[in-house]
């Protein structure tokens, strides 16, 4: 989990720096929400060695809490089309407004 969190924090800072350094490009840091993909399933069932995390994944899957990939992609595209975010903002699938 620490690698995942570190990667998310690094991405956030990278996008904020890109936005600050270039006014020619509008940068969106979009978090698509939890999506069930082949990669996430394989990771949580075969690679992840922490039993509690594996159990949480199983419960999450059984509860059908996953975000549909098409629905998330549509939200991201609509966000870009509406153009109401500031360059460098982080927007999560579940957000109503951008986080600055």
Low confidence ranges: none
Largest beta sheet, briefly? 2 strands, parallel
Distance between the termini: 25 Å
Strand ordering within the main sheet:
1-2
| Percent in strands | 5-15%
The gyration radius over C-alpha positions equals 16 Å
Number of helices: 4
User: Which structural class should the secondary elements be placed in?
Assistant: mainly alpha
How many β-strand stretches? 2
Summarize the helix and strand pattern as letters. Answer: HEHHHE
Considering DSSP H and I runs of 4 or more, what fraction of the residues is helical?
Answer: 55-70%
Question: What characteristic shape results from the CA principal axes?
Answer: globular
Mean pLDDT: 87
Note down, in words, how this protein is organized.
The chain is mainly alpha-helical and 100 residues long. It has four helices and two strands. Strands 1-2 form a two-stranded parallel sheet. The protein is globular and about 45 Å long. The two termini are 25 Å apart.
């Amino acid at each position: 989990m620490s690698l995942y969190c570190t990667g998310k924090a690094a991405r956030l800072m990278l996008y904020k720096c890109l936005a600050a350094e270039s006014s020619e490009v509008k940068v969106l840091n979009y978090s698509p929400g939890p999506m069930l993909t082949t990669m996430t399933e394989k990771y949580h069932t075969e690679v992840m060695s922490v039993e509690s995390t594996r159990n949480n994944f199983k419960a999450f899957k059984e509860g059908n809490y996953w975000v549909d990939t098409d629905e998330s992609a549509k939200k991201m595209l609509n966000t870009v089309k509406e153009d109401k975010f500031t360059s460098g903002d982080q927007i999560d699938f579940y957000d109503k407004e951008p986080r600055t």
